[in-house]
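Re: weekly structure request thread

Next one in the queue (191 aa):
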Amino acid sequence: MLGVASNPLPVTLTNSGGATLDFTRAIISTSFSQTNTCPPKLAPGAQCTGNIIFTPHNINTINGAITLYDNTFTSPQILPLTGVGTVVTLLPSSLDFGSQPVGTSSQPQMLTFTNHGPLPVTIYSGQFTGRNPGAFAVTNGTCGMTVLPGQSCTANIVFAPHITGPNTATLDVNDNGGGSPQTVTLSGNGT
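Done, posted below.
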């Protein structure tokens, strides 16, 4: 989500050389931050750990890097970073319909699409993809083409298997809220 810090992802730096590694500076791209246990000098064979945090300020894919300057011939060391900023959520991220007789429809399960941003979000389309897309359907809901700032809409999904055994699909919702498509994994067992 825009302005929300991600969980930290660890990065380990190892001095695999035979001389002490002297760090002179580190530069990290906007929308990313780091904390680390690295001393200014790292002995041969020693390791230290850093944690990278992503806090997006724009929607969609944000590319960056952390650049470490040191006393090696290969300086600087560059670690590419990527994250996706969004203002929308589609929850829950998965629906399990359990067992359902072939040729019948399950009770609906509800999905909620929420616009957490300051501008309206347009929903362009929604489609089922994957192994058994025809086994799932949207029956009704409140989602139109536009979701206003701070508002939510809902969609009810049913499972109507045509074959026995495991049925799986993905619902892809395409929108302009960042990180599109929003996806929900769907599963059920035809009996």
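The chain has no helices and 16 strands. The radius of gyration is 23 Å.
Next request, please.
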